[in-house]
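User: I'm putting together notes for a lab meeting next week and I want to include a structural view of one of the chains we've been expressing. I don't have a solved structure, so I'd like a prediction I can at least talk through. The sequence is below, exactly as it appears in our construct file.
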Amino acid sequence: MTPPGPLARRLTAAVRSATAVETSGIEPIPADDREGGPGSSFTLWFSSNVQFSSLTSGMLATAAFGLGWAQALLAIVLGSAVGAAAIGITSTFGPPKGVGLLVQTRLPFGRSGAAMTAVLVFFKACAWFAVNSILGAFAVQTLIGTGFGPAFSIVTVAQVAIALVGYGFIHLVQKAMALVLPLLFIGVSLYGFTESDLGSGFDAAKAGPLGFVGAFALVAAIQAARALSFSSYAADYTRYMPVDTPPRKLFLYAFTGTWLGSVWIASLGAAIGTIAFIGTPTDLVGQVLPGALATVTMLALGVSTITSSCLDCYSGALAWLIAGVRMARWQAVLVVGALGSAIGWFAGQGDYWKSFENFLIILGNWIAPWLAVMLVQRFLVRSRDEIPSRNFGPGFTAWLLGLLAAVPFMSQPGVFVGPIAESHPALGAYAAAVAFLTAGLIHYALTRRTRAGATRTTTDTHEEIPA
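Assistant: Thanks for the context. Below is the predicted structure for the 467-residue chain, given as structure tokens.
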């Protein structure tokens, strides 16, 4: 028997390493355990965006908000670029310190403030796990002709299993899916783009009081919120990369993967939305796609939701640990899977469309000011003090004030509509932008004042600020 060659040995070693159960939690990854390159960020975020929730977010543009396809495409391109930039930038936070972004949140937010935001990220992860589990279950249910319960079980168990193995296996799965998913989605893409009404114009009746400007802004905001919501995870998947990983290359790979996957599938959803309003993957079979193509598409949708939601399960578990819960990483994964499954099981019994829309908007409203604080801290704050407060830091104050500033602009029909959004519906799409700008400016002002005070104290007492 011929012994395996060097390439085969390297591949075998790589697969063995990737499938070994991860033992690390939220502690810094030692330099000797660092490996991998920025290219894996492209495959991870590309695969994670080629899925049904991307399709549905694009479908809202034409089927619900009345944009023509070309108008929807422009809004999707712009919104996706904002979200992709957030993922690209936050991906660069992982290699320098070898920890996820939520751990780094402790410096500007304080330990208690960081724990509170980690709890929000945990519940966000559980909610995304639920959303994707429902969508994946619908696809599997249609594919194998079973009830919702068995299909839901298949999807949730697969998602949890990938997250249980951990970091290396997630990257391995996403690399494989970056090759498989385009092949599976190419058929529905050709059919959707050729059979839809790409020349459709603006439908004022669907847009209602939003008008064209409001509808366009809302579509861009929803699309940005989809990717923006994953920015809190991004450093979780780069913290094993070497310290000297080039940040520009890492940004470019993460940005490009996110943007391409998001624009492709969301624009396909917008195209299909000119034909019919699709509530679940099952509706694609009944209203849009012919037989064999429908089967392949259901397979693609089922697989894609699993590969996306395993990120929620993995990062949600890390958030739970950062919140201060004492347990092993694998135990935290099971907690996310159990809670997300419970939410998904009950939500999956009815129509999820309005909840999905509100869910995406709410995510953008609270994550945007959090991201603003982290960006200001990373790129504008030049402090030598690396010791976080035990309680609440200036970043937490800035985050809260950013949220409060956005309240008048918030618009979640059936939940809450702020006074400005109520009197001017088109401005309801700008709540996240208001929160982002307010939080960023306030955090910069607060930290600048703190640094000035610290400098005066140091000069007077001849003491140094702790490094």
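A couple of points you could mention at the meeting. The chain has 19 helices and two strands. Residues 80 and 289 are 26 Å apart (CA to CA).

User: Perfect, that's what I needed.
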